[in-house]
From TrEMBL:
Domain HhH-GPD residues, every copy: 94-251
Example of a GO MF term: class I DNA-(apurinic or apyrimidinic site) endonuclease activity
Main localization of the protein described in the UniProt heading: nucleus
Gene3D superfamilies: Helix-hairpin-Helix base-excision DNA repair enzymes (C-terminal), Hypothetical protein, domain 2
Protein name (database record): Endonuclease III homolog
Functional note: Bifunctional DNA N-glycosylase with associated apurinic/apyrimidinic (AP) lyase function that catalyzes the first step in base excision repair (BER), the primary repair pathway for the repair of oxidative DNA damage. The DNA N-glycosylase activity releases the damaged DNA base from DNA by cleaving the N-glycosidic bond, leaving an AP site. The AP lyase activity cleaves the phosphodiester bond 3' to the AP site by a beta-elimination. Primarily recognizes and repairs oxidative base damage of pyrimidines.
Family: Belongs to the Nth/MutY family.
UniProt KW keywords: DNA damage, DNA repair, Glycosidase, Hydrolase, Lyase, Mitochondrion, Nucleus
BP term (GO), one: nucleotide-excision repair
Signal peptide: none
Amino acid sequence: MRTRSAKRIKLEPFGVQEQSGSPSLPPNVFAFAKPSQGPPHWHEVYNEVVKMRAKFWAPVDSQGCERMPETINPGVKLRSPKTFRFQLLISLMLSSQTKDEVNFDAMKALHQGLIAKGYPDGLTLESVLPLTEKEIDAYICKVGFHNRKASYIRNTCLILKEKYGGDIPNTIEDIVSLPGVGPKMGYLLLQNAWNINSGIGVDVHLHRLAEMWKWTKNAKNPEQTRAQLEEWLPKEYWSDINPLLVGFGQAICVPKANNCDICTLGAKGLCKSANKKLLGVGIGQKRLEKLQKQRADLSLLLKELE
């Protein structure tokens, strides 16, 4: 029987410049009994990532799609769940091939721009419906493929009004039928908007890391990764694994960058892809300066490695 061995850290709404404490992270996999399914040592890798992630805020922890509504509009989830769901949907639609930091800027511009137009609640279905595609595009022009996304948002808003009573749907089939919404967005939306855990939201970081750690076999795309992970990963971890590993991929195991000297997976023999030339070398001043310019403040993690 699996149990959770650590208490979840509560995360209160915060501004991007007001981060303190540790991110809200999932508890470890039960450490005293080897899980009966899944690839060898997956639970050890998972637990080690949890420990590292407790030492830094990654962009996903404040500017990721799941956090976005509360970041730009603190308290919205309790104050207006319907508005929260809509803002989460828009954040997910803007996120494709766009960094969290850029997505945050676009969401903030859209929300505050609509407040300035006289809508006290800012970004809502009712405030977006009167906008033209060109007006939407002007707010979101920093994100990738903004012209296409402006069209998707405009058409999605019309569908939500006409077909779903102004709210977002609560089945994966209906969600992915919306313009510009794929399975990753759909499963994350269900988990965070409706508390429905029917699948794993797999982005490029989770896809890349799962293949590197041999959690999947010859998965060619995120959808294949999702299908393979769902075969063995206990369902209780489906909603945790995306933000956990996205943050790890943003700050530690960065694409095309060797940060193995600050990652404990290599030192403990849990990552066969670790660059052995960097293990145990130590962190000099130039290396420290380079690490300080990355997407997360790694000072707590670096201090532990001293």
